[in-house]
Amino acid sequence: GNSVTQMEGPVTLSEEAFLTINCTYTATGYPSLFWYVQYPGEGLQLLLKATKADDKGSNKGFEATYRKETTSFHLEKGSVQVSDSAVYFCALSDNQGAQKLVFGQGTRLTINP
Amino acid sequence: GAGVSQSPSNKVTEKGKDVELRCDPISGHTALYWYRQSLGQGLEFLIYFQGNSAPDKSGLPSDRFSAERTGGSVSTLTIQRTQQEDSAVYLCASSLERLSNQPQHFGDGTRLSIL
Question: Is B106 on the interface with A (CB under 8 A)?
Answer without folding.
Answer: yes
